[in-house]
Amino acid sequence: MANKVSTAISVDQFNEWYLKIGQIYHKINHITVSHDLSYDQYLIMRELKRIPSIEVTKLSRMFDITSPAISRKVNVLYKKKLITKKRSDIEDQRKVFICLTPLGEQLIEELEDDFEALFKEMIGEINQELMPLFKSTDCFYNYLSKKAQQQA
């Protein structure tokens, strides 16, 4: 019986942690909203800065979301003139490469400055406490990824 209580507490702790992660996401999202972007859109643009021209399907794998979901996010960025789309293969119109426009490059620089300031202020105070959390999150992610592959 003691094991059940222990497991229930672990599940409760996990649920609390998960809810807090969602709340952190929403609090961080306010920085990008002031630039008329979601945090997810910012992350896509950040990857485009790192990898200047990338195929949309590779981006969907990087973010572990479906092709239709990444396409919707990319289309919003395209309509805002923050990215361009290029089809490199005339025979296969599904191959779409995207890259930042000059406006997108400028916006990503501004957002990175905003995030840099936030993290210097916040993480400077609690940096040592966060490092084990980041490592634990990586371990947890790797475990779940392995489980998902086994079930596929």
Would you mind describing this structure in some detail?
The chain has helices at residues 2-33, 39-50, 56-63, 67-79, 102-151, and strands spanning 54-55, 83-87, 96-100. The chain has 152 residues and is mostly helical. It has one domain (35-151): Winged helix-like DNA-binding domain superfamily/Winged helix DNA-binding domain (Arc Repressor Mutant, subunit A, Orthogonal Bundle). Strands 1-3-2 form a three-stranded antiparallel β-sheet. Strand 2 (83-87) and strand 3 (96-100) form a beta hairpin. Helix 2 (39-50) crosses helix 5 (102-151) and helix 3 crosses helix 4. The radius of gyration is 19 Å and the shape is globular. The model has no long low-confidence stretch (mean pLDDT 86).
Search tags:
152 residues; mainly alpha; Arc Repressor Mutant, subunit A; 3-stranded antiparallel β-sheet; 5 helices; 8% strand; globular
With helices defined by DSSP (H or I, 4 residues minimum), what is the helix count? 5
CATH domain topology: Arc Repressor Mutant, subunit A
Q: Radius of gyration from the CA trace?
A: 19 Å
What's the N-to-C terminus distance? 34 Å
- Residue share in β-strands: 5-15%
User: Using DSSP, what is the number of strands?
Assistant: 3
CATH superfamily: Winged helix-like DNA-binding domain superfamily/Winged helix DNA-binding domain
